[in-house]
Design brief:
277 residues, Rossmann fold, 2 domains, globular, binds adenosine-5'-triphosphate
Length: 277
């Protein structure tokens, strides 16, 4: 669905990607992680056709995004981290923008607006940042595009809205859709994503399904000094130590995405050896 081969991209002299390759399939929610300034937003913009590769190929839904063909634009939606909303009531936004998206479902949009508790009668200018963001997220979801890219979607959302967000995203995925979410709010997404992709210094550092991660790794609290010493990653927790170990017993543990991220950044070789074994 999204295929990136040997992507080279930079801003003027600043190189961001020097040969990045990545394949994203339909039917998955990808969590795109990486430290500040590593290029997550830049990657999403290359997928959306808002930035153009210097070298290499980006193919999304069989299109070259850089060409921005109408058939491509009507089947992809991006919720950027920073956005502008025209000062008009929600109904006008729908009236003037939804026709660009043939699969837009107004009933679905109205449901999200209600679930997110958006003050519908207000114009955009009268809404807070979080309320505007919820309008944009609701709109993007209701467009039912095959590709949905979201850059830090839970930033600015209150606690109830974050859990609402997880609920609606989980409910809208189907086998024809690919959702990519870039975030630092790992706790917001932990239970939602089914594939973890980490980029670092212009390359893919880690790319595994959550199923594979929990099959190969065990996340738990340990009091056993030997186990803690031999863990792939450990850090003190309120009781004992939070550890990641090889899953040799076929345990079913819940992935701790924050712990996994730290383990990959700080002890990547050990984690990699588990997946390459
Ligand atoms: N328009 C621009 N012109 C020049 N440099 C830019 C521009 N946009 C981003 N950059 C630089 O490119 C790098 C990647 O930026 P990008 O926003 O893609 O990172 P990110 O991983 O999304 O970061 P964050 O997690 O902080 O949102 C950064 O070093 C940034 O300073």
């Amino acid at each position: 669905m999204i295929q990136i081969q040997n992507l080279h991209f930079g801003y003027r002299k600043k190189k961001i990607f020097t040969g990045l390759s990545l394949k994203l399939e339909a039917g998955h929610i990808y969590g795109l992680l990486g430290k500040n300034g590593t290029g997550k937003s830049t990657l999403l913009r290359n997928m959306a056709g808002l930035l153009f590769p210097k070298e290499g190929n980006v193919s999304v839904l069989g299109f070259n995004p850089a060409k921005r063909q109408p058939a491509f634009l009507r089947d992809i939606f991006m919720v950027p981290e920073e956005f502008f909303m025209p000062d008009m009531p929600v109904d006008y936004l729908v009236k003037y923008t939804a026709p660009f998206y043939p699969k837009f479902n107004e009933e679905q949009f109205n449901r999200y607006v209600t679930e997110f508790d958006i003050p519908r009668s207000n114009s955009m200018q009268q809404m807070s940042y979080g309320q505007k963001k919820k309008v944009l997220i609701s709109f993007g979801l209701a467009c039912n595009t095959s590709v949905l890219l979201m850059d830090e979607p839970t930033n600015g959302l209150d606690i109830m809205s974050k859990s609402q967000f997880r609920k609606v995203i989980a409910g809208c995925l189907d086998e024809n859709k690919c959702i990519v979410i870039s975030t630092h709010q790992v706790k917001d997404l932990e239970s939602l994503i089914d594939r973890v992709t980490i980029i670092d210094e212009g390359r893919i550092l880690f790319d595994q399904t959550v199923d594979n991660i929990t099959r190969k790794l065990s996340f738990h609290v340990s009091y056993d000094i030997d186990e803690i010493k031999q863990a792939l990653y450990r850090e003190p927790s309120l009781r004992g130590s939070a550890v990641i170990t090889r899953n040799t017993q076929g345990d079913e543990s819940k992935m701790d995405l924050e712990l996994l991220y730290k383990a990959i950044v700080l002890n990547g070789n050990a984690i990699e050896s588990v997946f390459n074994a």
